[in-house]
């Protein structure tokens, strides 16, 4: 195993060295930006989706004339692989620093972002977090760290508040909840927040079940679900386990009043909807989602699909994170790290496809960032809450 | 703590999961137990078989169960060729070389899968994926029942091959005394390759039974092969009955362990048994004393 990792890191380093030779000279014609994701290992699928988003953004920026305030300088990606491990991510930051990048965009998973932002802070290297929902990433007072999207506290609070709105509007059919979550930082953190918030709104959390990655069989969990018979099932896990869980629920003929996923469920995954149309129908999600009223999101979706890929949240989150960075470099008029951090702090970036409005960073967190509620309706994903982004009326409860 | 309405289904479910473990362990026990080859590529080979089943379904619309007559011989040929052309040649007759060669093969296979299929998780949808059968209070998925029956059938077949056929006699002879077998006119290289082929053919069958209820990605083999090694040690190296019963036992332990200790601790029971067997009965439950 270690041999393989060694080989991969070596070859990745060699490949990036060949692809991106150091450019000498005082006035760079290109601005080097690190694009760091877990493109191999357990999180490879998500990491590769992120990378696609970042590269598409760079392509768009360069095609539109590059950084105009710097004489049309192009952005050049320096690709890095975090190998689905925090320490590998931190090592890539060291390499990127040596290679002279002006900023880094990455690194998808919360645990990896914790390591990479800290490593980048040593060099005052601006780090835009593209997904990384754990709030610990933003709470360490790192001046170089900026997160455009919402953290999991914001998502969990929105999820619970909106669930309550749905439930009240339907005449309060749901009272009990069961949470099924994966065991790492993301799943556990989200589940803890939910379990704390829900009783305040009058819901009884009947059971919170943690499972490993990978879990090969969900029959036990579903059997317990059968015994508990919750009105609402809330999963917080990654795709493989999510798919097995929902499929097993369908086999065992368990149909709660709602399946309400927080961060990463069927109703924010075109892949799941395509592969399991029956199981997906009616599922509600609270997740990162684009502004459906913005025409550019449909265009971007079409372009991603033309590459034979799914338009997943990883793609548009990283796409927008890269555009945010380019906007800051434009205003900084410089590839200097401190100048870019300063420009990010003052960012009012509003020309994007996310439902966040104009950007405003407080301690590195974009205060306008919010998740949207989506539901799978007739084999498509539609926004149901909040009202200003609504595409269709929610169906709740699924079964009376 | 749990009533029989949960306990019984969990038990049945453990048995059906265990049958798949047994099927994977059968191939391993033949290669590992009889020929003393520690096959690190076993998990990767399972992954290759799963992708074969996946491709046959997605490209040609061949049902996973109807793919059995294609995937099983295909895996046999792959195993035969691997042993004959790569493992045997590269190992120069040394066991420690074989270990490295199979490890190398697994790296090549996994990264080739990563290259061709990306790390994307893939599943197939069949008409019976969501069909369940009621056994008392338990609702069991049809694919799992088929896998259970299939595992019993395949292990019966293996027992018959090893016990009653000339090939089986040759395999046992080579396992016991390689040089003696050679002197008796047995083509040892051929028997080695046949055994490796049969071992991988078992994986082909396991893949056909597994995919309707599971998924495939380049890393999928790892989780199974660790359990399969445990099953082989538990049942006794080279014992087919041991692999079958060991697999079923491990499945049940995992299922009940998950129920009582929580899902993320379910595998503790497996490895507790593993350690206990190594301490108190190192030859395994059904193995002969060395």
TrEMBL record, chain A:
The keyword Transport applies. Residues 30-378 form the Leucine-binding protein domain. Keywords: Amino-acid transport, Signal, Transport. One of its GO terms (biological process) is amino acid transport. Belongs to the leucine-binding protein family. This is ABC transporter substrate-binding protein.
TrEMBL record, chain B:
CDD domains: TM_PBP1_LivH_like (cd06582). Its main location: membrane. It is a multi-pass membrane protein. One of its GO terms (biological process) is amino acid transport. It comes from the Bacteria. The keyword Secreted does not apply. Pfam families: BPD_transp_2 (PF02653). It is found in: Cell membrane. GO terms for cellular component: plasma membrane. GO terms for molecular function: transmembrane transporter activity. Coiled coil: none annotated. InterPro entries: ABC_transp_permease, BCAA_transport_permease. Keywords: Amino-acid transport, Cell membrane, Membrane, Transmembrane, Transmembrane helix, Transport. The chain crosses the membrane at residues 20-53, 65-86, 98-117, 138-162, 191-216, 223-253, 259-280. Belongs to the binding-protein-dependent transport system permease family. LivHM subfamily. PANTHER family: AMINO ACID ABC TRANSPORTER PERMEASE PROTEIN, BRANCHED-CHAIN AMINO ACID TRANSPORT SYSTEM PERMEASE PROTEIN LIVH. This is Branched-chain amino acid ABC transporter permease. It comes from Thiobacillus denitrificans. The lineage of its organism: Bacteria, Pseudomonadati, Pseudomonadota, Betaproteobacteria, Nitrosomonadales.
